[in-house]
Amino acid sequence: MKKLILILIILFFAAIAGYQIVKYQHAPNYNGTIEMAGLESEAEVYFDEFGVPHIYAANETDAYMALGYIHAQDRLFQMEMMRRVGTGTLAELLGEDLLEVDKFFRTLGIPKHADWSTVEWLAEGKTPWKTATEAYIKGVNHFIQSGKLPIEYTILGHKPREFTITDVHGIVGYMSFTFAMAMKTDPLVTKMARNLHPDYLKVLSVHTLPEHHIIPNNYPKRDSDTKEILLGSNIHALLEKLPAPLLEGSNSWVIAPSRTASGEVLFLNDTHIGFAQPSVWYEAHIEYPGFSYYGNHLAGMPFGLVGHSRKHSIGLTMFENDDQDFFEEQINPNNPNQTVYGDEFRPMYKRTEKIPVKGKEAIDFEIVESIHGPIMNEVLPDIGKLTSNPVASWWVYVLEPTKALEATWKMAHASSIQEIEDAVRLIHAPGLNVMYGDKEGNIAWWATAKLPIRPAHVNSKIFLDGSNPADEPLGWIPFEENPMSINPPSGFVASANNQPDTLANGIFFPGYYYPGDRWNRIAKTVTARNDWTQQNIKELQLEAINENHPINARSMMMDIDPGIFRGYEPVRAALEKWDGNHDLNSIAPTLYYKWLYHTLHDMMADELGEDDFENFIKTFLYIRSVPKLIRTNDSPWWDNVNTPQKETKKDILEKALKKSLEELKDQMGRDSHNWEWQKCIVLEHPHPLGAKKPLDKIFNVKAPPVTANEESVNKLPFTLNPNGIYRVNSGPAMRIIIDFANVEAAESILPTGQSGNLFSSWYSDQAEMFAKGLYRPMLMNESMIKNAAKGKVVFMKK
Q1: Where does this protein hold Ca(2+) (predicted)?
Q2: Can you give the pLDDT at residue 576?
Q3: What's the pTM value of the predicted model, to 2 decimals?
Q4: Does residue 358 lie in a domain region?
């Protein structure tokens, strides 16, 4: 026995020693001195209580070299994943399972576009954003060459190559792709339009409905010469393999001084992005003479896409505009390498790209393009099932090189609202709602994108006829006619991925907009009072109420036999008086979502098939269509086409309710008092390596239950399913609040932590705070930062 105890003690201490050795080899260095060639003078980096780096440098070049090194130290593997998605090289690192993802992105043209953007970048003369970007890349590469690489590389047996400007452009391309909703929606809508009676589509919200909430425009007066502002007053299965999160939506609102207690602008932003570990945003505060900025950075991006100085703030949401069309081509019967175009024929072009694959020979992959863009049939199976004709992707993003780096640099360095607009108009894609507030009291919203002018007859949600020149876009809408609102009389601007109002040119621009439930809650709440503060506005940012869900539920309750609820009276009463809140101890949402799933499945799976039904509930179309689907009594969807009798709304609802009650009884017991919403919710932030067990136990970050919901302001969505366990898959990637009365007291929170390095104490330290709705400071006060710093790294000239 003594010998066994001794062996166990030895093994215990050996494990501890082994862990310490591994930690020493891979943990970030938050203290000490680092020599780096190319620095002009010394730069200091202070790490605050939550691991945010505060960089103090004598000039811009030194600041961005330091940022590049520190960013790589905390997030290099995330940078690796992002650049490999954008350059179509995932299979080289992760193996053959990711080959289809590489093929998809290469066909779509993102790597090709990154190369083109780099050619244009290199041809450009010397600019401050080029100098800063190159310094950032130099800092990243210095870490790759001399720093302690994260343990993921050891596990994969890989050493990273150096970072390049093409990698940065690839990352911008990946971000742009995640905003392209057409690929997730148009094939399904086209299939419905071709296979079902038109009455079926009338019950869906393929386009914005009159009852949806729209964002009002408020166009500024402009100088007639300069146009300057005159201020006065089965794509889903493929995407599940991605080792990087998708950008999905967002909220942002900016409140004018007339509605705040401080008499200054109050600014809020929470971008909605797929949950992952590490989370998307990396915070960094940079100070050098003439520049002071606190930014939220994407992995591999030198300039914060969201951020603030002491004088202005920038936020983002997804515009959700329709910037991608699919053209179904007709092949020349006498030449398979040509397509029909009016009375003529046009050539198709082919190129072969070599895709490296881990542990195997590289493969040659042929990409075919028509005059409208790349042919997508092979990489989008849903298209291949729909037609044997080639279908081309026409996508605004790949039509011109990106200027995202110039735009984001200029937004950070802007000194006026006009300079912000000049920067914003450089973004041709993806479509973004750029939100703005400043110390002078200005508030603004711009929807930035190059918006195509489509012929009046074109339905952009359905495949167009590639042989018909009349289906082609006619040109571009001038930026000044894009949706925007500058200092509106309402005293606030807000965007929540919903439809903007009619443009200045009279066009109601199509898109993949959400119905506006979130926007409506924001608008009603903000305009209800004029004394908003940084503290009382938090209640709105954390709100988990959707007003439409109780209306849906009451519509469902009206058409069923109340006797079905016998023995389940508590949940019936809860559903009848439900206000749409998703509190953790609520029982109404537990039944609502289960009942909703079975209702929709029994309505639609007979027409669509199981695969397309599952695709439907993963699109914006589902969110936008549910109210009309549920509340329309004479909808053709109610009838099950596989049975001889004609089912009614009552038949489907009662069958779905009985099944739901029985399943919930088995899941949580007979007493429906105990069917608390928190028992149904799982939140886990997945790491790319967490897809392989048991690595999920090591790298993934688990969090307490959250107020999961669909389309509440604090949006924490999940995929509707029959199991009754809902895995929250996305949500606010940060929650920012800034009162310009005291910018140094601004607050934020991240879903997991600042660092992506497993051995950092800041790997998951914010996860519980985030789940509980807490905030932490975004420090900019130099003495507070330096006096309370938890680490200090000094970069010195080599």
Answers
A1: 322, 325
A2: 96
A3: 0.93
A4: yes
